Amino acid sequence: MKDSVTRIINSVSVKFIVIGILSLLLLIPVSMIRQLVLERQTRSEEAILEVSQKWGLAQTVTGPYLNVPLKERHLNEGKEEFFRRDLYLLPDDLKIDGMVSPEEKTRGIYRVIVYQGKLQLSGSIRVDESLREQISGMEVANNTLYLCLGMTDLRGIKDLTIRVGGELFEEMPGLPTDRIAGKGIHIPLPKETLDREVIPFTIQLDLDGSQKLFFVPLGKTTDVRLSSTWADPSLTGPSSRFLRKPKPEKRDSPPIGRSIT
Q: How large is the average pLDDT for residues 112-131?
């Protein structure tokens, strides 16, 4: 009898059955841990969204650029018809300098990184002779063109000062079209602005955001340089790099720069 029991216990089939039962039992804590991880991830995303909606979402700054709405005349069976055509003039050179000050917000056990950015966008838009000749054969709708600046979350704008040709202008919310950027602000400019060969601009922008800050390099030459107290930023782009300086004795972290050309 004992030999029969010993043979059964030592049989391969019984060993496989025992291993199978133990594996099934181990799946219970694994499933509980997985559910806990998923719950923490969901709550972390909810905490980030809650803080970001109150402070400012991840920001993408696009532009500035000129939107010139043109009216084209066509004859259709002897009847005159008008069609709108939008012309976009991108900067010949665009320079962005700024300071990004990060701040850590907490919601329970979750950490959310937000920032305050003080940016200066400067550059110029060139209107060459051939372009002026092309525009002269058409009618500028309402004799108005628009300097546009795309931004992801307009709630993050804290202060905005825009000068075109040295003259101060007041911004208006929204964009005339969404071909280049979906959201942003615009400034109506008189048609006579196109008479200039070079249209210089300077924009002082204070904005709040969270998690990420992107710039769309619309300029023929775009140079973005940022400094921050954040020790380990992650930079992306065609020519992103850190510009580190020797660390002073009493300084917590070195300045960080970024250049996109």
A: 92
